[in-house]
Amino acid sequence: MKKKIIGIFVCMLMIATAIPAVGTVTSDISSTYVEVVDQHQYDCPEFQPITSYEYEWQEFVPTKNNLARVEVYVCYYLLDEGYLYLTIEQPLGTVMFEKGLSANKLPEFPEFNWVSFGKIDIATTPGIPYYIVLYNDGGNFYWGGVMVNEYPQGNSSYDPE
Fold it and tell me: Is the pTM of this model over 0.90?
């Protein structure tokens, strides 16, 4: 009986000391986390529609070892239904990250805005092409800038011909 009580006490002590340690590590990491802009589109005069169940992509070549966040200049139009999914792929077709946002979380056409799909946190290899892919699951969306203002080190799926 004494062995059971001692075992339970030791387990409770380990749990009680582990919880503050985990909390401390998390807060230390987040307090030292700094984002640095690698690439940015400054001008988005045109936009590409992403109609129901279709996708568009934009290539980028990172200069940093980690991708923390991506913002895309988007909006929904007609009906605020469906989801817009963002994936990071390398090579094209191999998904490293995926997250969707419902249309009602996005601005309504003709208003666009920079939208973040949250923290990504994936390791990248500088100089190798990666792809931001937006695909539509049942709504209607526009992606601003993807047509004529690709990232400085990349191409897009838009083909003007």
Answer: no
